[in-house]
Amino acid sequence: MRRIGIGLIGTGFMGRSHAMAWHAAATFSGDIQPVLVSVADIDGAAAERTARQFGFQRWTQEWQQLIDDPEVEVISITSPNRFHAEQALAAIAAGKHVHCEKPLAPDASLAARMTAAAEQAGVQTQVGFNYVKNPLLKLARQMIADGELGEISGFRGIHAEDFMTSPQLPWSWRLDPAGGAGAVADLGSHILGMARFLLGPIEALFADLDTVVKQRPEAAGSSVMKAVEVDDIARLTVRFARGCRGQIEANWVATGHKMQLGFEITGSKGSLIFNQERFNELQFYRSGDQEQQNGFRTLVAGPEHPPYGLFCPAPGHQIGFNDLKTIEMLEFLQAIRTGERSGPDFREALEIQKLVDAALVSSREQRWVTL
Known about the structure:
Helix content is 34%, strand content 26%. It has helices at 13-28, 44-54, 64-68, 84-93, 108-121, 135-145, 183-186, 188-199, 308-311, 321-338, 346-365, and strands spanning 2-9, 32-40, 58-60, 74-77, 97-100, 125-127, 152-160, 202-210, 215-217, 225-227, 233-240, 245-251, 260-267, 270-275, 281-286, 297-300, 369-370. It has a nine-stranded mixed β-sheet. It has a six-stranded parallel β-sheet with strand order 3-2-1-4-5-6, with helices on both faces.
């Protein structure tokens, strides 16, 4: 059994999710065994707490120590967006495999540099578009490829949450334009990536980006206000290379919505509906099916949809968010073992970032942008 050392940068929500996923992946990973070597966070207390909670061998406040550590072969990056490039490029230069949370970089030019560096170094990469690891999303893609929906006529996609709704929420790294765009990058990258996963490349788009909350307190409880320079809502009309068109929305001020990541795909023979808030279910309608005259049929996730069976032997019992992260890490480990690409990697993240950049240009200049 090959043991492979993991170094984690960041201990926030995604950092803890990575730690949990790497820990769980060790149960299923077969002949390549992840070992939690070290965790880094500028907040030393948080790093020490995470190390103790998840069983890392050591912790540090300096992320560079993970790059220099010969026992660390994989770097997991969960830091704020503006740090991704520096940390990933340092890891690649040291010959380490890199898993980086999305968005990969503030813009496509930097994402392209990161992608080129990784491919030239021959290291494996992965970016945290974990929602496409859902067994039912893989089923949906296969159904589309097999022609069960016929000729695709339309796509409607949305990723809406309400965590930025309150105007009293203070300015934070999410609103820092140095880290890239706002909702269109943070949430939009997920639904754009999902659209590509299901229907292939997007060749052109028209975007309208809107900043709803124009200013926020510079810190919690402060009366000093700071201007917001990134979008809260992004609305896109897209044209897929396969010929169909669609609408996509990213919205982090969608009052009441906690995780409305979903889509509806219509075709000449049938339709699919999906919502991440019920992500163990896929709604399917087949045109002309006498048993479905009154609407959609619910396809329920079960062990027949790999790798659901790793987590539960019975259908309908449901897997969860952290299971998707575990699947993500398992597939990354296999990519490292076999040397074959496993997506979404840096190259796929670059293509998604090109769409985000195009949306910014389109909204600013109020025109269609061709990719």
